[in-house]
Design goal:
- By secondary structure, the protein is α+β, with helices and mostly antiparallel strands.
- The chain has a single domain (about 5-120), classed as 2,3-Dihydroxybiphenyl 1,2-Dioxygenase, domain 1, CATH 3.10.180.
- The chain contains 2 helices and 9 strands.
- The strands form 2 sheets. Strands 5, 6, 7, 8 and 9 form a 5-stranded mixed β-sheet that branches.
- Helix 1 packs antiparallel against helix 2.
- The protein is globular and about 45 Å long.
- It starts with a strand and ends with a strand.
- The relative contact order is 0.23.
- The model has no long low-confidence stretch (mean pLDDT about 90).
Length: about 120
């Protein structure tokens, strides 16, 4: 259904440090800058784009919005959470935890306040 997700940010280099660290922790690669100055992360068929707003106004986080990212394992979720908090993210909700269905999940806000969740699916 989706071709990509785009997140508006205010400080490209600060966001690059955060997203490079968190996607590397999931086994992905650092973002690549396109000709229009957007960071692009491609991993497991998904595409996340990071950009300053085209209208020149400040970026704001979506109230009630969240982006869910798949992780291969519980260890990847923990590495993502650690990389994110080390690189300007804020831990929110609960500490990384197992859900009743066996999934392991963690939540962060990126340096601009965008809410992110990473989840590894149970093998139960």
């Amino acid at each position: 259904m989706f071709t990509h997700i785009m997140i508006g940010i205010n400080d490209l280099e600060r966001s690059r440090r955060f997203y490079d660290a968190t996607f590397t922790a999931l086994g992905g690669k650092p973002g690549e800058m396109d000709a229009r100055g957007r960071l692009i992360y491609i991993h497991d068929g998904g595409r996340l784009m990071i950009t300053t707003p085209i209208d020149g106004k400040p970026a704001t986080a979506a109230n009630g919005g969240m982006i869910g990212i798949a992780a291969a394992s519980r260890d990847h979720v923990l590495a993502w959470h650690a990389a994110g908090t080390t690189h300007g993210g804020t831990a929110i909700e609960s500490p990384p935890t197992e859900r009743p269905n066996g999934d392991f999940v963690a939540y962060l806000r990126d340096p601009d306040g965008n809410k992110l969740s990473v989840r590894s699916h149970s093998t139960k």
